[in-house]
Amino acid sequence: MKKTAHITVLCFAFLLMFASQGWSQSPPAEAFKNVTIHTADGKTIKSGAIVWRNGIITNVGKNIDIPFDAYVRDGGDSLHVYPGFIDGHALWGSPDIDEDVETPDEPGNPGYVRAGIQPDRKASELLQTENKSLVEAPKHGFTTAALGLKGQMLPGQIDLFFINGKNTENLLLEQGVGMTAQFEEAQGQAYPSTTMGVMSRFRQLFNDAKALQQQEQYFASVSSNYPAPKQNKVLEALHPVMDKQQPFYFVVDTKENIERVFMLQDELGFEVVIVSGKEAYKQAEELKERNIPVLASIDLPEEPKWRSEKEDEDHPEITEEMRIFRDKQEEAYKADIQNIAKMIESGVKVGFASNGLDLADFGKNLTVLKEEGNLKDEDILQMLTQSTADILGYGNQLGNITEGRIASFTIFSKPFIEEKAQALYSVTDGNLIEFEQESSEE
Amino acid sequence: MTKDTEIIMTYLKSTISACLLVLFLGMSAEAQITKKAEFGKFAITNGTIHTVTNGVIENGTVLIENEQIIDVGTDVNIPSDFEEIDASGKHVYPGFFDAGTQLGLQEIGAVAVTNDQAELGDFNPHVRAFTAINPSSVNIPVTRVNGITHVISMPVSGRLAGKATLIDLYGYSPDSMAVSPNAGLHLNWPTSKKGGWWDDRSDDEVEKEYKKDLKELNDFLSEAQFYDKMMTDFERNPNDKQQPDMNKKMQAMREVVNGGIPVIISVDAKSDILDVIEWTENYPDMQFVLAGVRDGWRVADEIAEAGLPCLVSTLYTPERDYDNYQRPYQNPGKLHAAGVKVAIATGEVENVRNAPYHAGFAASYGLGKQEALKAITINAAEIFGVNDKLGSIEKGKQANLFIADGDPFEPMNHITDVFIRGNKIPMVSRHIQLYQQYLDRGAKTN
Amino acid sequence: MKKLLLLLFAFCFSLTTGFAQEKGSVLIKDGNLITITNGNKSNTDLLIEDGVITQIGNDITAPRGVETVDASGKYVIPGIIDAHSHVAGVDINEWTNPVTAEVTMEESINPNDINIYWALAGGVTSIHLMHGSANVIGGQNETLKLRYGSDMDGLRFEDAPRTIKFALGENPTRVHGQGFDVQPRTRMGVEQVIRYHFDAAIDYQRNRREYLDAKEAYDNGNRSTPPVPVAKNERLEVLVDILEGEVLVHTHSYRADEITMLMRVFNDYGIEDYTFQHANEAFKVAPELKKNGAYTSVFADWWAYKFEVYYSTAYNASILNANGVKNSINSDSGELIRHLNHEAVKAVHYGNTSKQDALKMITINPATQLGIDEKVGSLEVGKHGDVAIWDGHPLSIYSKTLKTYVDGKKYFDRAEDADDMRLKVDAEQDFDEASGRWYNENGRHSETCLRGAEIRFSKQGMKLQGN
After folding, report:
1. Choosing a second label site near C22 at 20 to 30 A (CA), which of A70, A97, A389, C107?
2. Can you give the pTM of this predicted structure?
3. Where are the domains of chain A?
4. Does C225 contact A226 at a Cβ distance shorter than 8 Å?
């Protein structure tokens, strides 16, 4: 009894430190009852209940015991609970790229920053907490996100956060889950200005980092008669990637660029996660063989205009040439939409990354995926939750609603993939946010 | 003979030979560089004459006196004082006509000061290519030795770029070279298509700008029509009228709005062509010719129905990624098949000499040799209203022709003689001079 | 239904086997063979098995499963080789530094370029995908075979020697000297940039070797103090390779004096087997080129678009050939590549080069310049089955390519040619919008050597202010 009280007080104090919206003091435990719970592995628990304490889910199921000190909310059998969506590479809160750049005196030697080589930057140190996406994301079901930085070839390190508006900056879960890498040239007139230039630059950076590491090792191993290595934050930031302790999160879309990542991987030896990967299905086999997961984009192409046009509308006669063109366009469109489905089918591990996608387009694209993307609702849910958690290395702690997991889930008014579904509550690392009901905007 | 004398003799011989050689080479080089055109009385005999308008004459004769062709046929009486040029085994063709170039206006593309084809400003109907043609352009001899005797040279920039000129390629001033000093007005049709990947305007912006450009053009034409009517009125009866102020641009438009010279419209995209066709119907008094017309084969019937002639080339890459690879070659043939009058216009400056090959590819891909020949001779002449003088080998026409050892569309054949306005052109050009100078340099290597 | 299933099966099968390095077999019967190296043979058969020419002669019977193609009345020539091309490329110029030997067109291949197909339709089977001419020492080039439908790796001409692009004259002095205020601004500077970097490469080679040897010694316990690391330098490594003769140099050049300058520099550093590209004034120094064993690869007749080509002659190819210089004719253009046969016959027109020699300029000569002449460039037993069948003599303007084979596999057939031959389709591009390719190639504006560099210079977008 004493122990429980002791813990309760501690919990109280603990929770006080992390006061969430609308609560000056959090209750010791909380619960939802009479809700439909959707787990990441596709199971549905009707009229279920979920209890969480200290940020951990303590019990989930139908007809479970709800502790006496849990604050209970009744879902009235009309609400739906989903594991919190996880964004594997979001740019929320990242400072924008400075468009106003000048040509350096020596365009061939622009310096690290000007060339966009900034692996030493950390998303957590540059996070712009007033960014609206941090408030909007939970409304779309996101509770966790790996936040990256906008930039060129090496924008910086990715830090994993729980998402809760301004409070996000206090909710850092892990620093450096990955290092963003892109085939993005330096801005304006500076080296590298081509994809082949970027590839060479990656090589040279690794060469330089390797030499520095070697010098550091030698310096540490001798007592005298050896020059001290010059500190280089950029090269040192690459050592974990070189040593395969931190993966590159390579943002690529085209089949050819994915092949270029393979080339670099074979040559330089690094772990890699593909971000975006709009044509990744074309390399599904190779990705599976190399055990490379994909944090897929759902930034789908616009539907060809003619597809939604009415037959009798004032439209020129369709020539044979036009028909062949449209057939090919349709084929390409379908292939793009079914990218994720094909990858999953081939056995590639597919998670989700917004990578700059406007949150306003999130729901719309999910609907297209469901209708034409050859994906079942469970596939989409898994992609957004458990799979991304696995890729981030948090497969046992995030991404599902089961006992022992971190309490991160969203309560929707309807199944999340339905058009008018709205998020009513978001629980992030155990902290509950209640959303104001909007008339019908989203 | 003493040994010394022997040596001297040997050296003397080689010295004399060397001197003679140098003299000879020097003379011929001298002669080449300063060789002038010959003018007077010529009889080209025993050749196959491709008259263009009256079929092919085997073993024929062409009599040239001063600027004119005075007789053509098989039974021609050759006066004794005519210089005979034996064309046995060879072919005689009318001089070729490239209906779209900047020859004489542009010299070296990368060196701005040598280029006069693009004046500043959008509406320059008064600006004339005729003024800026450089008769000494190095390109001119290079072009004419390949059988091209006439070109349209036109300004290129802005909306109404200026007036094109029709010149022959022999002369020392634009005045002596010009067949029609003002041959047409060049209009660059605004395009409803994006420029390319760097063009990041939205579709709406593109549409808006297109409409705005068209309105500007139409307003200008309205003003020009009004000005013409007003001036005509005044000129008919200046009494009791206040003389209107001179407007150079509007004055230049007069011969255009009353149909005196055609508007040459550069337009390529399909929807733009259709817009042009519709637009030209608003101006029934004006003459129009289309140029470029790369999507023309898609709307050949519409162009034919509108009766618009087309100035086209064949050596470019297809307009669309999904176009069949042959479309550029086929364009003239498909237009012709629909009933459009086509003429070859390379759009070139220093490569106008390749005009016969544009025609050759057109011939090969559907136009046929006969029609291709017409496209590079009589059709152009007809479109520009000079077919009384040019475009075929007929008695009474100007003596513009060349002699080739075979089909001039085939590069493996050679052109041996060229006549422009009765002048027998020296077969000399920078290319030929450098060839003669360097084929066997005769000097030591380093 | 059965046919549909069969088609579907065949389609799926072709997908799974993949295009990369696919080889084919075919018996071409009764054609007029222009072998290039062994004379012309009329009414003769040519057999290709698994990508290699195995027989040339009469009355050859097709092995089992090998298709027979009747070529009676037709001409069969080796696939045309374009020694200077920028089609199938992504970026062309890493123009930000005067020396960028470390970049390579191998990593800038666009296998989905429709221009590849259009080149096949003109009988071309191999191209030299080159870096642009913005830099004195540009990037490495990549020799490709036009296996349309392959991925990037599948297009590479396996075991072709490495080559690199140098550029002299107006282009690098304009881009760097005038554009960036970085040497070279003059032809004097161009020479020094090359010499400086060759010297730097020699120093680097020595220092790097010293470090690696010392490291090995230290790691094996044969040395007491560790060495200070010398990082591997991608750029200088390539320059070292050039000096060691492992990379063939192809130099964009025009003026006679800069051509002799480079020969002088190459002689100083012991570099051999090099080719001058464009070389409009090469005819002025044909004897010097011959003496140094230098090759040339020229336009048929482009000139006058820049000052350095103002004193050119269309007789360049003929003069070089007559003086014993091994010369090829290239396109440097997505337009000219479509009819390189026509460009070649211009050497007959301007200077009476023989038809045989003219054809060499687009087959065996470029093959030699790219170091692949043991594999392609002529119809010989043992060489690759890279051939094309034409309906007339290939030097006639009226002749058309009927079929083009690479490694014995047919990649173009005029009888089966369809309109839309794109490999990659943009789902968002609608029909009529998809017009106006980003640059149209014709005549004087087509020298694509400065693509990428010139666009950023002239803010008028694609209004090429002369190349």
Report:
1. C107
2. 0.92
3. 1-84+400-442, 85-398
4. yes
Q: Is the peptide bond before C172 cis (omega within 30 degrees of 0)?
A: no
CA C282/CA B240 separation, integer angstroms: 73
Question: What ipTM does this complex have?
Answer: 0.91
Query: Among A163, B199, A54, which residue's Cα sits nearest to residue C439?
Result: B199
Burial of A126 (0-12, 13-18, 19+ CB in 10 A): middle
Closest C-alpha among B222, B230, B284, B219 to residue B258: B284
CA distances from B136 to B117, B168, C304, C424 (A): 16, 13, 14, 50
Chain C residue nearest residue B315, CA to CA:
C442
Please calculate the CA angle A193-A197-A203 and round it to the nearest 5 degrees. 140
Q: Under an 8 A CB cutoff, do C102 and A200 touch? A: yes
Of the candidates A87, A204, A73, A74, the one whose C-alpha atom is nearest the C-alpha of residue A137 is A87
| CATH code, A85-398 | 3.20.20.140
Topology adopted by domain C80-376+425-467: TIM Barrel (3.20.20)
Q: Is B295 on the interface with C (CB under 8 A)?
A: yes
Q: With b meaning 16 or more CB within 10 Å and e meaning fewer, what string describes A264-298?
A: bbeebebbbbbbbbbbbbbbbeebeeeebbbbbbb
Domain check: are B212 and B349 in the same one?
Answer: yes
Which residues in C lie closer than 8 A to residue B292 (C-beta atoms)?
Answer: none
3 state DSSP class of B83: strand
Whole-angstrom distance, CA of residue B93 vs CA of residue B96: 8
- Rounded to a whole number, what is the distance in Å from the CA of A30 to chain C's nearest CA? 48
Same domain, B229 and B300: yes
Residue B160's beta-bridge partner residues? B123, B187
**CATH number belonging to domain C20-78+377-420:** 2.30.40.10
- Write out the E strands in B293-377: 310-312, 342-344
Q: Which of A103, A207, A324 sits opposite C420 (nearest CB)?
A: A324
Q: Are residues B235 and B309 in the same domain?
A: yes
pLDDT in tens, B123-182: 999 999 999 999 999 999 999 999 999 999 999 999 999 999 999 999 999 999 999 999
